[in-house]
Design a protein that fits this description.
The complex is a heterodimer of chains A (263) and B (532). Chain A is built from nine helices and seven strands. Chain A has 263 residues and is of the alpha+beta class. A five-stranded antiparallel β-sheet of chain A has the order 6-5-4-3-7, with no helix packed on it. A two-stranded antiparallel ribbon of chain A has the order 1-2. In chain A, helix 2 crosses helix 5, helix 6 crosses helix 9 and helix 8 crosses helix 9. By secondary structure, chain B is mainly beta. Chain B has two helices and 38 strands. A five-stranded mixed β-sheet of chain B has the order 1-32-33-34-35, with no helix packed on it. In chain B, strands 2-38-37-36 form a four-stranded antiparallel β-sheet, with no helix packed on it. Classes of the chains: A alpha+beta (263), B mainly beta (532). Chains A and B meet through helix 1 and helix 2 of A and strand 29, strand 31 and strand 35 of B.
Amino acid sequence: MRTLAWWTLTFGIVLAASSPRAQQAAATNPLQGNAQAIGQGLQLFRSSCASCHGLNAKGLRGPDLTTGQYSRGGTDAQLFRTIMQGIPGTDMPGAQFSDATADQVWAVIAYLRTLSGPASDEDKRGNAQNGETLFFGKSTCSQCHMVHGRGGRLGPDLSRIGVTRSRTALIDEIRTPGRSFTDGYWPVTVVARDGRRTRGVRKNEDPFSIQIMDTNERLLSFDHSELREVIREPRSLMPDYGPDRLSDAELDDLIRYLRSLQP
Amino acid sequence: MKRTVARHALFLLVVACAIGVAVTGVLAQQGPDGNQWAQYSGNDSAQRHSPLTQITPANVGRLAVQWMFQTGVAGRLEATPLVVDGIMYLTGPDNYAWALDARTGRQIWRYRRQLPEGLNICCGRVNRGFAIRGDRLYMTTLDAHLVALDARTGNVLFDVEIDDHTKSYTATVAPLIVKDKVIVGIAGAEYGIRGFIDAFDANTGRKAWRFWTVPESGQPGANTWQGDGWRRGGGSTWVTGAYDPSLNLVYWGTGNPSPDSFGDARPGDNLYTDSVVALDVDTGTLRWHYQFTPHDVHDWDAVQVPILADLTINGAPRKVLMTANRNGFFYTLDRTNGALLRARPFVKTTWAQEVGQDGKPILLEANKIGTEGTVTCPDVGGGTNWMSPSFNPTTGLFYVTTREVCAKFYAFPQEFLPGHLYWGGAVENIPGEPGFGALRAIDPVSGLVRWEFKYPKPSFGGTLSTASGLVFAGEEDGNVMAFDAASGKNLWRLQTGAGLRAGPMSFMHNGKQYVVVASGGTVIAFALPDAR
């Protein structure tokens, strides 16, 4: 009976700020080390977490969960709260808005504990200070991306990107951007009936209207009936940063900087 | 064979020529009392077609909100309200329920069930609506009970267990009243239940019969399972069926086998999962079945509302059952015997080339899934899902909200543990390919799409047809809309602010026709401002 899976659909629904089903966290995981619970946690992880964190939990759009480091705290109670309530302002939804029970969340945590190992040596590569200089300088990242109030608005704010992206995911998104788009940043060109074109990123759209931020960072609204067409571009507005534009050493620096951006 | 939207569009001209045959061939159908909406799907045939004609293509542009009712309860509405004698009966999340003044939206009573903790529920703490018989309302509950309420007070008249919720049985289905029986389905296949359809005596709540959707050893169909897999074989029945009084048959769709994705745990076709079953109303005896997706590994429940109509096909009148299936194919069956009359994709499908003469899909490589993952279309949400379709006997068209999405499916071995999710797999979205949705009008004679109206997002809103030639529909971005039933032209819309996950309905009160739909946690009633 799964219907696009509860985590995808029900998490997408904006509900009340607090749910009567919100569960209170125990101080420690009552299912820690429980073999059955770990197995159940694996199933739950594959079904409800893997889309963002990857089937191996090493991170896709969401962070690597195998390092033992968690941005919102790594105690049992902190992990429980993070999973149950989600992380406001990120794509991490709260399980309390679905059908998840406390035991299910504890089972996921029990499973995650079996994955944790030391941070990879790769995470220690590069120089964050050099990366920051690159970000606001030569690599022009800040033309579109903001960090702590500095930079552009056309791309996602990266002030906490170190929480939400693994090193691997960041390399992919810098070297070959456009393999996936975050909601609110899909590149589009709207073509008016008189042929006038406006390029930007899509903030929202329904069958009758579209809202975009154009490349001058203006928020604009159009009715589809007034448009000749909406061209949905297959690539991100962000250019490829191949080795010709960003050497491997510079990439290490930039990623070290981005990974340092945590609350 | 792949059939794309573009290809569907190419068929429009052909269908437009052929449709004349279908329209003239549609026989008169029983319809609901135009003043009432007394069943989940409007009438026994489940056509969700209102005979009311006050709201027309010419005046629908003036449709205006009459009232809104906000439940104040967290969670979304997926129910179709009932209206009888000016009172609206609505069910909501967590088995809340309400009676409202259908004219003003003012609450008359509220019911809330005390639910036990720790329920195993896949896919939403929702409910899809009441059934009504006389002054009694019937509702299934998340803890797998059937409750009968006094329609005037909301007081409980009886409360019977359908099955044991500690075994992961749960219920969200709107019951179907047939004669003196209340027929209900069950949910829980994601936890490895064994599915069934139950009939209860409407007066006493006593069990009248049970039809197991997964046969036990020794029963017909058991040879499509191995070992004791049938004990946890799934086959949920979580959306309301249809009824043909002339054949004394009830038709009901069945859901996925368990585990959902790891098919190696259950070699065989896995009857009667992903099927429609035709049951004798009085005894629950199986008269025939048709399985849409043998040995399903994609969670493509066949619970979509089956619509009954009489069509002329190849010059002969046929009693048909029509369904747009989650697996991406539209089917027209002979409802007297289950014979396949037409099967054709209505969305992009990559798992089957076509449905063969023997009624079985001719599988493609993309149907196989394993630990490496396989991209298949449609996705786990399917070409359509629980959202109600509708059928207009005059246009001869079947209106359904469709989803054009693909996904990467995985299968993993998994041990069954009671009370634990039993999927044996995972599903990943395709990066950069969110898909889209569309309202489509399908000719059930040819199986071809006659018109479509695209939505930016894959949607889960139901549809309503009216005798005045309108189709009402809702979509994921919050629009409730009216379309010309013949051409698909959009004639009216309102942005409601929340995705629509319920089926619209219509009723007449004090000479005014209302159209009602739930949006998020709000029920909205529309009418013409000067209809009196």
